[in-house]
């Protein structure tokens, strides 16, 4: 079935949440860019937990593997900790995009970012070299993917326009701000 670039997409289903939905399929850059300092602190603690726990277990009950046995296992424990820390960071940030946890700061950041893009005439979610059909495939495959990331690591790395939110609010806000700027210029002239 052939599709063209003007195909209208049905809006994706929304998950029930207590806070506003920012994006049902946030790009990987936005997830890490919108993460709070507390997310990085918690992720750092989670990353450090694995090697620290392994070190403590070795102190309490030594394995006596010899000189060359402890270091490779300690490197593995550190790698597992880092992957776990990144998972925690990604999960906490995505939960705010989905509206599952308090997200007032991120809503404000999103609004500011998108309104500024509208004012500059840029595409809201970036431009893509991928066909519209493949953008849709990517969106359908990665929407709410964070909820299953502990089983299958899957991230949105494709720019597309299917994010589950009504983008008209950004254009209306930009129009209001541009009108206010015009009135301010007219009043000062």
Plain-language structure description:
The chain contains six helices and no strands. It is mainly alpha-helical and 189 residues long. It has one domain. Helix 2 packs antiparallel against helix 3 and helix 4 packs across helix 6. The N terminus is likely disordered. Keywords: Membrane, Transmembrane, Transmembrane helix, Ubiquinone. It holds the Pfam family NADH_u_ox_C.
Write the layout of secondary structure elements.
Elements lengths: L27 H6 L3 H24 L9 H29 L5 H17 L11 H11 L25 H21 L1
Keywords: Membrane, Transmembrane, Transmembrane helix, Ubiquinone
Protein name: NADH-ubiquinone oxidoreductase complex I, 21 kDa subunit-domain-containing protein
Organism: Aspergillus bertholletiae
List keywords for this structure.
189 residues; mainly alpha; 6 helices; 57% helix; disordered N terminus
Described by its quaternary structure, the protein is: single chain
Overall mean pLDDT: 90
Strand content range: under 5%
* Share of helical residues: 55-70%
Total count of strands: 0
Give the biggest beta sheet: none
Supply Rg: 22 Å
State the end-to-end distance.
Answer: 58 Å
By helix and strand content, what is the structural category? Answer: mainly alpha
The general outline is elongated
SSE topology string: HHHHHH
Spans of at least 5 consecutive residues whose pLDDT stays below 50 are 1-5
Number of helices: 6
Please, how many domains? 1
Question: What would a concise description of this structure say?
Answer:
This protein has six helices and no strands.
